Amino acid sequence: MNKNKWLSKLYYDLGKQKTNEMKxxxxxxxxxxxxxxxxxxxxLDVIGTNKKYxxxxxxxNEIVLDLDPEPDMKKTLxxxxxxIKNKLKYNNFRYVIYFTGSRGYHIHIYxxxxxxxxxxxxxxxxxxxxxxxxxxYDKMICAENHMIAMEFTExxxxxxxxxxxxxxxxx
Length: 171
Prior knowledge:
It is a single chain. Helix content is about 25%, strand content about 25%. The chain has four helices and ten strands. The strands form three sheets. The protein has a four-stranded antiparallel β-sheet. The mean pLDDT is about 90.
């Protein structure tokens, strides 16, 4: 899928236009090895343009599990993801699982119940859902202003595309 079409789908269809604060940003590593981060822009100002972006903030109704291989995992990362996928199906969550293009996977979960919650309660809810699914998740991503790699885009460090490996009820 084209990342610009996906950004529009995120904002209008999945985010129900209730995510005016959603921002995008372009980031990359230059030829000298320096990490370059451009200024964040509102997603609504970027949709339909040719502006470059590689990262985005979360939707109000989105939870992202960022899973990387951990030394104390008893199972392989793919087995952990399979367990999470079964829990998501059992709880009737809509989700998309992506290979990040780097070391791990992102599991994006969409739950419209979150539209009813204030920011503080959304953060608590994200932690609750994530901790019920796996102890191996990046807790920083529960904040809506945290940047995550944009879907269908080259990873800013590896150049590999963040692409779908599984989904339920979203794409």
